[in-house]
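user: Here is a favour to ask of a fellow structure person. I have my own habits and do not want them to colour yours. Could you put it straight underneath, so I can go through it closely?

assistant:
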Amino acid sequence: MLNNILFMSRVKITIEGSVQGVFFRYFMKNHATALGLTGYVRNLNNKVEAVLEGNTDKIKHLIELCKKGPISAKVTKMDIKDEMYRGEFRSFRIIY
């Protein structure tokens, strides 16, 4: 059990650009769920915010996918902040 916790991370990501109205939240939910990550994604004023928890390498993979986003998105800036892993979430969801 301890080994699994050592490879668990939590990050908060803010993504800016043309990221609203282009299915970015659904893109993140589908990939996060497929990767076994938990947390949430939501729209904020002209940007998308997400909190991800799970395997460190899988979070890094999702971050790389988010740099491009869905086909109609244009990401201009990403702010990624490491946070203390909490094991707070049971699934990944979209907050409306």
Summary: The mean pLDDT is 93. The two ends are 34 Å apart (CA to CA). The beta strands are 8-18, 38-44, 47-55, 74-83, 92-95. The helical segments are 2-6, 24-35, 56-66.
